[in-house]
Design brief:
The complex is a heterodimer.
Chain A (H helix, E strand, L loop, with lengths): L5 E3 L8 E5 L5 E7 L3 E2 L2 E6 L3 E12 L2 E13 L4 E5 L7 E2 L2 E9 L5 E5 L15 E4 L9 E3 L3 E2 L3 H4 L4 E4 L1
Antiparallel strand pairs in A: 1-15, 2-11, 3-10, 3-12, 4-9, 5-8, 5-15, 6-7, 6-10, 7-13, 12-14
Chain B lengths: L7 E3 L7 E4 L6 E9 L3 E2 L2 E9 L3 E13 L2 E14 L2 E7 L1 E2 L4 E2 L2 E9 L8 E6 L17 E5 L8 E3 L3 E3 L16 E3 L1
Antiparallel strand pairs in B: 1-16, 2-12, 3-11, 3-13, 4-10, 5-8, 5-12, 5-16, 6-7, 6-11, 7-9, 7-14, 13-15
Classes of the chains: A mainly beta, B mainly beta.
Chain lengths: 167, 186
């Protein structure tokens, strides 16, 4: 497969469920990349938020997430909108496979994201790590995260925002 | 990543979130970028038709485009003219113009109806429209989803990216996020 120009987690906007995250409480979710794609624009749909947002690209080894790259953006939105995060810490051609994205806000108000309408199972996902929310507040994005330190059940924990990566 | 052969490819999963919607009609193509993870023969594209019992004649055109620089180029096409007067929801196959083995990677599906559907009481299964808010704050980078405004009722051999409008470009413009469901069967 040739180099991709874009990769998404959801192929269409399918309604607009929203979730809010307490300030400086990062959450993580899986992101499959079908083939190599350059990180130029990481687009998400944020709410009417005024806050700094950081996005991190993580790989997973065992039960540990490791930060491979990151970018941040100061949001000043008055209504829900696509937000394009471009200022990466390093250029990267993302290789195919399963990655994880981490999102965290600064010290501003809670961040709200839009994504798919979700189902909230009452038990934890029984397979490999699929996503979760930090149980302690932290500034920025940790260089490594133990998945055992994350809350992995509930609505916030299973929510996945729309993400569109364009090269 | 090693290439595999696919028997089926759908532009989005048709799970319990779909609705019958009329398309914009002649002159507006709904365009959706997709990631096709393996090779697939362009044999039979299929849509899901929803009819309301009024006599109607609608031509649905499907275009397979690749992006080359600032131009979408037509690689293949399919179409079908529906002349109906029934009620119900049906699978409908489109006739392709040429055989093709679609290579894996990014492609664009374009769909255009000859009428807006309402007059003919005919619509197609599409995504639930996700109008997320403010106009103008579109996703950065290359065009991925939206509409093209073309000057004729036929899909063009090439479409300049300057003639494309990304989803959320306009306030309340549901047509920019509306995408008809299509599945390609090899």
């Amino acid at each position: 497969m040739p180099q991709l120009n874009f990769q998404y987690n959801f192929p269409v906007l399918q309604g607009a469920a929203t979730r809010s995250y307490v300030t400086q409480t990062p959450f993580y979710f899986a992101f499959n990349v079908a083939d190599s794609v350059s990180w130029v624009n990481f687009n998400i749909v944020a709410g009417a938020d005024t806050n700094n947002i950081s996005i991190g690209l993580y790989s997973i080894t065992g039960s540990s997430l490791s930060l491979a790259n990151s970018a941040s953006l100061n949001l000043t939105l008055t209504s829900p909108s696509w937000a394009s995060i471009t200022a990466t810490s390093a250029t990267q051609n993302i290789t195919p496979g399963t990655w994880y994205l981490g999102l965290n806000g600064g010290t501003g108000a809670a961040l709200t994201f839009q994504g798919q309408t979700i189902v909230v199972p009452g038990n934890a996902f029984p397979g490999a790590f699929i996503g979760g929310v930090a149980t302690a507040t932290t500034a920025g994005l940790p260089a490594s995260v133990a998945t055992s330190d994350l809350d992995i059940t509930g609505g916030q924990e299973m929510f996945v925002p729309y993400v569109l990566l364009t090269g | 990543m090693a290439s595999v052969r696919l028997n089926l490819f759908q532009n989005f999963p048709l799970v319990h979130q779909a609705a019958a919607s009329v398309l914009q009609g002649a002159g507006t193509a709904h365009i959706m970028g997709v990631v096709i993870p393996g090779s697939i023969s362009f044999n039979t594209p299929m849509v899901i038709l929803s009819e309301g019992g009024t006599a109607a004649s609608v031509t649905l055109s499907f275009g397979l485009y690749s992006l080359n620089g600032s131009t979408l180029s037509l690689a293949n096409s399919a179409s079908r003219t529906f002349n109906t007067n029934t009620t119900g929801i049906y699978w409908a196959s489109l006739a392709t113009s040429a055989t093709q083995d679609i290579a894996p990677g990014n492609w664009y599906f374009a769909m255009m109806s000859s009428t807006s559907g309402g007059a003919g009481n005919m619509s197609f299964m599409c995504n639930l429209v996700g109008n997320i808010g403010a106009a103008g704050n579109v996703a950065g980078g290359v065009f991925v989803r939206g509409i093209a405004t073309v000057s004729s009722s036929a899909l063009q051999a090439s479409i300049a990216t300057s003639d494309l409008k990304k989803e959320q470009a306009s306030a309340g413009a549901d047509e920019e996020t509306l995408q008809p469901y299509v599945v390609i069967s090899a």
